[in-house]
Fold this protein.
Amino acid sequence: MTALNPSGWRPESPSAATGVPTATASNSATTTGNRALMLEEPLIFEIGDNESTGVDFDVSPSPLAGEGQRSVATQGEGAPQQSAQSPLPNPSPATGRGAIRLANLLRIAPINLPGLSEPQTVRHYTRLSRQNYAIDLGLFPLGSCTMKHNPRLNEKMARLPGFADIHPLQPQETVQGAFQLIDTLAHWLIELTGMHSVAMSPKAGAHGELCGILAIRAALEARGDARSVVLVPESAHGTNPATAAFAGYKVEDIPATAEGRVDLAALTARLGPDVAAVMITNPNTCGLFEPEMKAISDAVHAAGGLVYCDGANFNAIVGRVRPGDLGIDAMHINLHKTFSTPHGGGGPGSGPVVMSEALSPYAPLPYVERAGGGYHMVEEESAHDQGSDSFGRMVAFHGQMGMFTRALSYILSHGADGLRQVAEDSVLNANYLLRSLEDVLDAPFAFSGPCMHEAIFSDKGFAEGFSTIDVAKALIDEGFHPMTMYFPLVVHGAMLVEPTETESKASLDQFIVALRSIAGRARAGDEALKAAPVFAPRRRLDETLAARKPVLTYQNPVPDASDSGKGAMIGGG
Ligand SMILES: Cc1ncc(COP(=O)(O)O)c(C=O)c1O
């Protein structure tokens, strides 16, 4: 019954109709289910022997042992195994030294840890990593996400022991270098944005948005003017309305114009004494700059509100435009986008928030201050004396030190002129893609003029029954991570493509060739497109089921009766 390749994957022959090389009968299947040097295997929980490796500690048998319970010392090879399925019995009240030392958490039954040798384990994870796609492998054109190269110099700097091996609770005089680094980065961010101050501690873009909105609320409350509504244009990123709602505001939409920009007339008409703030993404999620930003800010201020700008797309304008000159009161910067710190895979983000003079007193604590030839942290105890009316804290300590180090390395290695070129190259690359594809893919805002850092396309013109997802899946077969799909919502079947400034013309040309061919097939209604991906380790998955009914914990497979104590394999057949 157990299959050689129990997880169910088999290399399959792509249809001849796809126009890609077709596997022949002799090479479409292998005895093992492996494909070339890509090995196929089950999950780590399903291989090896459970409970068969480990270290026995010299612990005297617990008084608990004997009544259906065992001490740690009796675990291991040869020990009677309890069924993988059996629930843990309730531990008896703690008695004896072992129980006390283990705080009543003494293990009383096998917990089915996989038992594998080191080479087996190393190979398993290395094989998994080879199935992953990463920015170090190729173009990663996720629009809005800015997946760009992470320079190795940044990594080297972040690993310097003086930055990497310190602790936030160390005496302040022993971490003066780290404080100086935070302060230097803060000055660059203030300088580049033309703002008055910066809150360094928020740990992601959305966290920065919350920080900005909480500061805005504190500022309004301080003047006895609590307001209830935040206006969010349709062209804003999805986290903007989510943040405003999370902070307790009523969110109202402002429509976009046919050119994909904020409708200034509609915005101005809605302003009033209940509007606390406007949250605008600029450049917006259609990849366009909002040229009327100053007029928007002036109108909001005249109505007594404040202006939050989502600055996640700052890489498109850094060194060219200073948000402070556009009347913005608060704006987060995703260090993991503009300043090249690693992004994705759940890695640590960092979202410092630059603030106007009006908002600065309400910034979160703690913050680094330079005084008397050194640096110190301003905390709750001293904040009031420093003129702070802070709304509180965003995090326990100071923010993402490792990301600060990487971002400052990037800034210093580029210098002011290099950062300006970052913006110019990100815009150049996106426009190269836009103009190279607009004859085969509908580009709804191409007529609005040059895009900024990302180009947007729609599924208009595809044959009946074909959609953006078919294009995205076919890109996987062609060796590219798909672009952002179905976002922003203002464009039907949106494909948001962001090449970033770090891509070469050669890699953009390859991507263009691939996308032009796939777009042609979608327009022609090539049914084979619907089977894509055919060369990936996994075929097309049921994404709706995965989103609606996610299985977020490992589920113990049904044990094979002939092989007790070892997890049975999923699938097979
Ligand atoms: C425009 C924009 N705003 C905000 C965010 C949220 O940033 P984060 O993912 O760091 O929370 C993103 C992330 O993709 C974004 O693209």
Remarks:
- Residues 144-145, 204-206, 237, 239, 281, 310, 312-313, 334, 349, 351 surround pyridoxal-5'-phosphate (CB under 6 Å).
